[in-house]
Amino acid sequence: MKNRVLVPAVVALVTLAGAAPAAGLAPPPPWYYEPAQPAAWKPAPAPSWRPPAARPAEKPSQQAPAQGGGTERPTKGTGSSGPAPQADYRSTLVRLLNDERAAADCPALRPHPKLNKAAQAHSAYMARAQNLSHTGEGGTDPGGRLAAAGYDFGRAGENIVAGPADPAAAVRAWMNSSKHRTSILTCQYRHAGAGRATGRNGPWWTLLLAAPR
């Protein structure tokens, strides 16, 4: 596509140190690092699988349901009608991260609702702004977004990427970048939060890793 703003799987990383400053001194500014796109990673080709054709609707039964007879059955989707539920991609992403951490003898990450909230808000902002950046809406930084979500961190890091179609591709992009891999394999982290927003040049992914103070 011509005039594409971002190539798939552009990644960036920020690490925050929340150590308490010495008495009488201002806290040090957060340290940012935005490495170049990892050249070794390429987006996977689109799958050739197509969902099966929809079955014709069945005629409604003439028999009236029994009084108080249960709830409606959820309609099964074909897998192409929209993005997977938030909980599904988040649980998959955390599981994949924990597989990588287990191989490095790091403890498993636990999902945290406050990190999920901050990560999702930032992914939505990046999709609207069409800008892959750790600077968020209103000039916020990852530390400010964590604080606004009510998480008091002692150590935190943020990985972002635009382009991967699913959690496995997002984790692969980060693991193929040495700085992002180091962030994921930092054993001191205890909690994880993830955000994903669809849209042009997306999906837009945000991964927050943190340990409480």
From TrEMBL:
Sorted alphabetically, which keywords does the UniProt record give?
Signal
Compositional bias segments (type: Low complexity): 33-43
User: Composition bias, kind Pro residues: at what positions?
Assistant: 44-54
Q: What is this protein called?
A: CAP domain-containing protein
Show the segment(s) annotated as Disordered. Answer: 28-88
Q: Which residues form the SCP domain?
A: 95-206
Which organism is the protein's source? Answer: Streptomyces kurssanovii
Does the entry feature the keyword Signal, yes or no? yes
Q: Which PANTHER family match?
A: SCP DOMAIN-CONTAINING PROTEIN
Identify the domain of life. Answer: Bacteria
Would you indicate the residue range of the signal peptide?
1-22
Name the SUPFAM superfamilies on file: PR-1-like
Work out whether the entry's keyword set contains Acetylation.
Answer: no
Q: Which CDD domains match?
A: CAP_bacterial (cd05379)
